[in-house]
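Structure tokens
________________
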Amino acid sequence: MTQASAGDGAVSRKVPGRVRATGKKPGAGKRKRRRRAGWWYRAASFLLRISWYVGWRSALLLTLILSVPTTYYYLTLPEPRQLLESRTAGSAVLLDRNGDSFAWRGVQYGGPISSLEVAPVLRHAVIATEDQRFHSHFGVSPRGIMRAIVTNLSEGRGPFRGHGGSTITQQVGKLLCLGKEYDAASGLSEAQFERDCRRTTLGRKISEVPFAFALELKFSKEEILTIYLNRVYLGAGATGFEAASQRYFDTSVHDVTAAQAAMLAGLLTAPSVYSPTRNLSKALDRANVIIGLMEQQGYLSVSEAHEARAHPAALSSGSAAKAGSYFADWVMDTVPDFLTRNTVEDLVLTTTYDPRIQRAADEALEHVFATKVRQGSRAEAAIVVMSASGEVLAMTGGRNPRATGQFNRATQALRQTGSAFKPIIYAAALESGVKTTDMVEDQPVSFRIPGSGIWRPKNYRDEYSGRITIADAFAKSSNVIAALLSEQVGRRQVRDLARKFGIENALSDGPALALGASESTLLEMTGVYAGILNGGIRATPHGLIDIRLRGESDALIGTPEGTRVQAVSRETAAQLTGLMRYAVDHGTAVRAALDDRPVAGKTGTTQGARDAWFIGFSADYVAGVWMGYDDNTPLTGVTGGGLPAEIWRVAMQKIHDGIAPKPLPEIETRFGSADADTDTIGSLISGLIQ
């Protein structure tokens, strides 16, 4: 076989035992592949060298940049124990008459706690919820921050709004305001300062990094966690886990269960949203999520997690009731400022508050408004219940009994008293010698008032009864007879007697004083009736038993011992009691009668029906009810003997449940007595009538 020359450019045919001629040198493909691989190698090497060159220099530069603020923060950080509390105001825990807490005021702080001393389940719940790699990171979690940014953007928020991705160490930095202390000279309140310094912005987020490094360098993990457990806000005015545990469960963090620990840890995300006193259902749902996290991370076994879910955390009785807010606000207002507003001391106030009676009052108000008042009505009501000595046992200052810091209609609303003032008129008359059996003419009358001309008082609906006894005049709430008695005794004497009974607000100088034209509060007026039950001795309304510093046994302030004031004689008080019982049995207050015991009381309706009152008492308790509109809109179809008497009856029936009936300290008043004397009054008022 012949072979074509190389110059012919032909491809050689396969010849056994010989090398084919291809026109290429042997090994050319390998060399080409090597050249190609070499190019990629050189490119990769170049990029690596560049990256290394830029990277280590950037890292060095970043380290140098971070080292300056980190060193500064490290040198300026105080000892951990100095960072556990930063309050500029104190707190108060209010105890009821049984010694149980029912209200909290101010910034609650339960005292310093150590992360090593709290119940392990609480420490685990916090770490599982907020920072599961707390013990392994160096203060910052870049992965966590990036994950939070992605989540926030995917949910339509800004990169730093919502999820923060912060470690517990970073959160401590935020709680400490990056070491910046509050300065009152800044013009900001402490709350405003904290809101500003804890805003999540890019600049603040960057500043957290060196501060977190400084914390990790200077403090141990347990010291950082201790600061966190003491400084974090957990809703309902509670700062720190000890205060929150006491606030919600009335127990220490040393003794919390897994379910309680999960609920407390659940507050860290949003204390206002998951507060169990605001929304228990949400708090329980969040707690179940925390229990799941603890189980996933090995802090709880399957059986322990099941137990925690099967027996969820329950609020203490005081927290669950959410009652007594009006009472607590009133008591706090009676405490001197140097013990409340101008101190960082933590106080314990023992009060006269009775949660059983408060519950009865709230339920009565709610029941009557739900069943007797038209839907959508803006009418308001208030209730005060006290003992004969003036110990205030319950107080509701409006239709929302669970509100705090709101207008208290029992203590702050000055309203005309109407006929509820008449017991003072009759007390003055009885003290001057008038008898309940004296006869009078209940008919239209005109008075010559020096300097004022003619005054004509009118009865309700212009109805007059003619010849009746003083007792009947009281029971029917005759305005004419009240005016006659006031003018006979003298308005000055009436005002003086009102002062003796405890009315401190200004009283009318004119003849309309007899018809309750003066203004007073429900608390003051209920105190007047308590004085009548108290045998005529002034009963000053009070709610405070003593004040102590937390942890101390000696009282700073006890119950003030007021001067004993005998406003009227015991006999006059007994006669007044008889008159008011007669009004309940036969007069305008029949709707207030209780089924199983005698009660006494008086209705009151002001001109134009802008206020409706009923105040009365049994042998055990005194209660007052006011009803009206905040803007003085007239009530429609409501008098003191209507809905206020109904609220009073329902409340007092509940209050006396299980209490044996007792007789009233009264002098019985009989209808149309035979020993009536018409001259006693007639001769004294003849010069007044036109």
